[in-house]
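Weekly structure sync, notes
Attendees: PL, DS, HV (note-taker this week)

Item 1: Double-stranded uracil-DNA glycosylase
DS walked through the input record. Source organism listed as Sutcliffiella horikoshii. Sequence as pasted into the shared doc:
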Amino acid sequence: MEAIYDHIDHDLHILFVGYNPSIRSGETGHHYANPTNRFWSILFESGITPRKYAPTEDFKLVELQYGLTNIVSRPTIGAADITKEEYQKGREELKEKIEFFQPKIVCFVGKGVYQEYSGIRQVEWGKQDKNLVEGTVDFVAPSSSGLVRMKKEEIVNIYRNLNLLKNSIVAQKAN
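Item 1 (cont.): predicted structure, written out as C-alpha cells:
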C-alpha cells in the first residue's frame, strides 16, 4: 500500500503530525479517512476550521495555512505495527520538513507521536516548554482516533487552546 501525500507548504500556521496513515487512509489516499476518526469534527468544533471538512478535502487545509503529515508514512492497522527503524527514519525526515517549511506551530496528534519524535517521555497536553526546531512552537494534542478514551469535549477543549495559541502567534507576527 502506498504512503499518502503530505499536504505541506511554507508559512503554515499549524502543521498537524499524526503517527501514520490508517489502512483506510492508505486505500483512499486521504488523511484521517477512517470513519471512526474524529479529526475533521474536532477541527471544526474547536474553531480551527470554519466548517467540517471531509477527508477527501484534506488538501484544502493548505488554503487555511494548515498542513498534514505523519511521523511514519506507511499505512498500518495501528501504531503498534510501526517498527523502531521506521520511527528513526520518520524522526529525521520530520525534523527536516519542519526545518525547511518552518510552520509557526507543529501540532502532534497524540502524545505518542511527540514522544517518538522528541524522545521526551513525560509530556503534558498543550504547548511544550521546549521547542525542538527553533522558531516553531511544539503543541501536543490528543489523538483523534475513535480508540482514544478521553471524552470528545475534553479533546475539543485542548484543540481550542491550540486555536487560541495560533491566533496569538499570528497576531504577534503581524505586528
